[in-house]
Design goal:
190 residues; alpha+beta; Alpha-D-Glucose-1,6-Bisphosphate, Chain A, domain 4; seven-stranded antiparallel β-sheet; 4 helices; 7 strands; 30% strand
Length: 190
Amino acid sequence: MEDIIRHQHIFWENSLQRLKNLLENTKKSPNKIQIQNKNKMDNQNYSATIKVAASPGDVFAHINDVSKWWATPSFKGEFEGQSTKLNDEFIVRFGDAHYSKQKLVEFIPGKKVVWLVTESLLNWIEKDKTEWTGTKMIFELTPDGDQTVLSFTHEGLVPEQECYAKCEQGWDMLIKAKLPKSITEGKGSV
């Protein structure tokens, strides 16, 4: 229970800081903020959809085998913990540049898994190095004949964040190229 309260506190603290920053920017440049709000209403979160020649069960199992497609040695990543059932927690590290701790908060085999980022430290960001804390990574699977449609959303990763452009490039490479190749070829290091 203490962990839940601590995570909620961190989430709200980060949310309030982002709101404060937004309000400060509004005073400096009201037209710019109006444009950002309009764009935010159109599509806030990073998302990507791919189709993979594998069953939903196989895709689901592979997503949760994080060390095979995200935190791989060839990608200079480290994986620690468990990611195979509800409430499992795991850490992904890329040297001193990236640290994130995820908790599986929704787990429906073959259909959906949601990771809540409970801690993060993105050292390459100048302002809020904890931008990912409180965000969610959502993987939803839909069968399509002998293939599976994978819809990925990083909820809370929005264009207003400092990391968005680089994170978008990273997720594009991981979700659109590395993950499907890893699933269909059965290779962990791509």
